[in-house]
Design goal:
Chain A is built from no helices and 11 strands. With 116 residues, chain A is an all-beta fold. Chain A is globular. In chain B, a hairpin with a 2-residue loop joins strand 6 (56-59) and strand 7. Classes of the chains: A mainly beta (116), B mainly beta (114).
């Protein structure tokens, strides 16, 4: 199957700092990528849709100025958590469809963020 | 927007028994329904999916049924094995030219006991 890689897999940072997470599609081009957040023992909640060459679309309740998304190429989307706080500690997972209408989403390994 | 409900939240079965997980969705326009298996700390893995133009799909020990009228779909795992223990998520979406924006259910923790 298609491969989506995410980096870093885990990160610990101090409160108030910014953290960047990268999501790459390794063997296909992705004009769209999705960023999810998963708190412990909870479901995956869609945060935003990353669109190559244009602005991301954010879900209701997600602060676009806090969670900056850049999709500068067909194989890379980045999520930057700015001015991180302990409540931002979570598992962040990206995903991408190999082709637009196949349905199947391929997920990255996830990035576990811990804000101290 | 779409709302997906999933039951039960936890399910414990004996090895060899069957397990059934049920989901309902709210948006009648949804036409794609995947099921994902997630082991602790790992990425979700697609195990089976179904589109709205069919009512049932089977892949070895796993099957999914869809009732569009009632807006619910179910996952059936037969002859369960310890390695089936994981969290299972259902999801729903509308496949469009803009991609596949999935709405996930709340998850079911399946435990297969020896």
């Amino acid at each position: 199957g298609a491969v989506v890689s995410q980096h870093p897999s885990w990160v610990i940072c101090k409160s108030g700092t910014s953290v960047k997470i990268e999501c790459r599609s390794l063997d296909f081009q992705a004009t769209t990528m999705f960023w999810y957040r998963q708190f412990p023992k909870q479901s995956l909640m869609l945060m935003a849709t990353s669109n190559e060459g244009s602005k991301a679309t954010y879900e209701q309740g997600v602060e676009k100025d806090k969670f900056l998304i850049n999709h500068a190429s067909l194989t890379l989307s980045t999520l930057t958590v700015t001015s991180a706080h302990p409540e931002d500690s979570s598992f962040y997972i990206c995903s991408a469809p190999r082709t637009v209408n196949t349905g199947e989403l391929f997920f990255g390994e996830g990035s576990r963020l811990t804000v101290l | 927007g779409e709302n997906v409900e999933q039951h039960p939240s936890t399910l414990s079965v004996q090895e060899g028994d069957s397990a059934v997980i049920k989901c309902t969705y709210s948006d009648s326009a949804s036409n794609y329904f995947p099921w994902y298996k997630q082991e602790l700390g790992k990425r979700p893995q697609l195990i089976i999916d179904i589109r709205s133009n069919v009512g049932e799909k089977k892949d070895q020990r796993i099957a999914v049924t869809l009732n569009k009228t009632a807006k619910h779909f179910s996952l059936h795992i037969t002859e369960t094995q310890p390695e089936d223990s994981a969290v299972y998520f259902c999801a729903a979406s509308i496949l469009t030219g803009g991609g596949n924006k999935l709405t996930f259910g709340t998850g079911t923790q399946l435990k297969v006991e020896l």
